Amino acid sequence: MKTHNKIVILLSVLISIIFLFPILWVTMSSFKGGSELFRWPPTIFPVNPVLSNYTTVLSSTNFFQTFYNSFMVASMSTLLTVIINTMAGYVFAKYQFRGNNFLFLLFLSTLMIPLEVVMIPIFQVVKFFGMYNSFLGLIIPPAATPAGVFLVRQFFKGVPNELMSAARIDGARESVIFVRIMLPIAKPVMSALAIFSFLWRWNDYLWPLLVVRSTKRYTLQLALANYSGEFTVDWNSLLAMSVITMIPVLIVFLVFQRTFIKGIVTSGLKG
């Protein structure tokens, strides 16, 4: 048994190294100069570390604006996603009405439809409501996600119905039951959903590229694409900015990691 545990630990460490190596390489390469970045044989750690890559990125006129745009869009979209998906998942899990399972399966089946298939209809809706080239066009359309509703529904399926029955006997209204009883219990799954949503919106490139026209509303992912020209690529600045874009996601995960892991573990216990 001890030998088995050692093998599992060793495999876990090796897999972690494999997944973390690209991040380590990008981070270390962001401190390399232009000549050192392309030297052969390549080195993981910089021989002569430089900060000029970061100062170049930070001194660019649009960096702080694009960073603010990405953070604002990701934060507001995450807040809206958590609110909408928590309410929808709660209803699907705890209220029985005609067509409940059918509507849920129909909603869940949209996971199999790629964004590219529905991109044009969604864009037409966004343009019809005057949200084109605005932050609303980036925040509102992806707010309701089938994956988020499924995650929350599975969590609430594991919450005993007796809690709701006892609260109703005491005269509590449905809104009070949801806000004061169910939401505190759902903190783990809400944290997991918040991390997923923030990660999705922060790394999203295709939808902002379609909806945003003005450079003043560019997100970091669109700004990253500007470092790739038709014939040349500014690899030093690209690597430095890539490292900067990883920091907010890492901070969000570190803040919610305990409840995130608990939410993932407990969300699929009951169907």
What topology does this entry show?
Elements: H1 2-29, H2 34-37, H3 52-58, H4 63-94, H5 100-109, H6 115-128, H7 135-139, H8 146-157, H9 162-169, H10 174-185, H11 187-203, H12 206-211, H13 220-225, H14 235-266
Oligomer: single chain
Mean pLDDT: 82
Distance between the termini: 33 Å
Instruction: Please work out how many helical segments DSSP would assign.
Output: 14
In the predicted model, the low-confidence regions spanning at least 5 consecutive residues are 267-271
Strand segment count:
0
Residues in helices, as a percent range: over 70%
Global outline? globular
Biggest sheet character: none
Structural class: mainly alpha
Order of helices and strands: HHHHHHHHHHHHHH
Radius of gyration: 23 Å
Question: Strand content of the residues, in percent?
Answer: under 5%
Task: Write up this protein.
With 271 residues, this protein is mostly helical. Helix content is 71%, strand content 0%.
Please supply descriptive tags for the structure shown above:
globular; 271 residues; single chain
Give a short overview.
With 271 residues, the protein is mainly alpha-helical.
